[in-house]
Model the fold of this input.
Amino acid sequence: MSSTVAVPPSPFANSFFLTGATASGKTALSVEIAREIGAEIFSLDSMAVYRRMDVGVAKPTVEERGGVPHRMIDVVEPSEEFSLAEYLKLAGEGVAECERNGRIPLFVGGTPLYLKAILFGVFEGPGADPEIRERLRREEETNGPGWLHRKLAERDPKSAERLHPNDTKRLIRALEILEIAGKPISELQTQFEAAPLVDPSRVFILTWERSALYDRINRRVDAMMEDGFLEETRALFAETPPPGPTASKAVGYRELDAVLRGEMELDAALDKIKQATRNFAKRQETWFRSLTASGAHRIAVDGRERADVRDEIVAAIRSTLAASAAR
Done:
C-alpha cells in the first residue's frame, strides 16, 4: 500500500507580495497599501539587509516608511554574509509574529531569488561531490576564464543564460548537477516548481513601458548622487572590515569606489551604474513574465495616478481575504 508524504504548509501562505523592476515605484505605493489593509512590510530586497547601505540600495527612509512597521531591513553588517536560508528563517519568524498580532504580511521588493524561494521553495538538488567540484575548478584554471560558462552553455543553455560568466560557484554547481543527476538544473528546477507553495495570485507586479522605466532608473541614479551615494560609498569602504563579497555586489558601490581611488572618472562610473541597473531591470522583467503565467497580477503603472493603482491592488487583496474567510 502506497502512502503520501504531506507537505507542511508554507509559513508565507497568507502573505501578499508587491514586486516589480527596480525604480518601479514600490516603496511609496506599498506604504499606502499597508495602511489600507493593516499590514506590516517585509523587505524583499537582498541588499536592504545590510546596515549603512541606504542611499545606494534605495532603502526607504524613516520618513518614507510613514509609520508602517518594516522588517528584514538592517539585519547584518556589510562585512557579513547573509544566505537565502537565513533570510527565509528570519522572515518566517517575523511573519508568524506579525500574524499573531493580527497584521497582514506584505512583502515588498524586487529580488527574484527571494520571491522565487518563498513561492516555490528552495531546490536543493543532489548532494555535493568534492571530486567533481575540484576537477571543474582545475579545468577552469587550465582552459582560462569563461570555460565553465561555455561548457554549461553547450549542455544547459537556459542556466548559462541566467548565470554570469564569472559566477564560478554557481557554474560549478550547475555542471556538478548535470553529472550527478544526468539532467540540467534548469529542467529539475522546472519540475520542482510545478506546484507552488504560495498562491501566485497573491503577487502583484508593477509594470512600466521599458522606455519610461529606463528613464526612471536614470533619474533615480542621479538623485542618489545628490543624496550622498558617493559619500556613503567612501564611508563604507573605509570600514574595518570592509564590505564582504555579497554586499559589494550591490550595483554602484564598486564603481564609485573606483572613482574614489582614482581609477575611473565619475561620469563613466555613472554611465556604468545606470547601464547595470537597466540590465538588472531587464532580467527582473524576464522572470516576472514567467511568474505571470503562474497567476500573478501584472499591474500597469505608467500614465495612472498612484491612488488608482493602490485602490486596484487593495480591492484584489480584500477580495482574496474575503474568499479565504469564507472557506
User: Anything to note?
Assistant: DSSP finds 14 helices and six strands in the chain. The longest strand covers residues 16-20. The domain at 16-123+193-326 is CATH 3.40.50.300 (Rossmann fold).
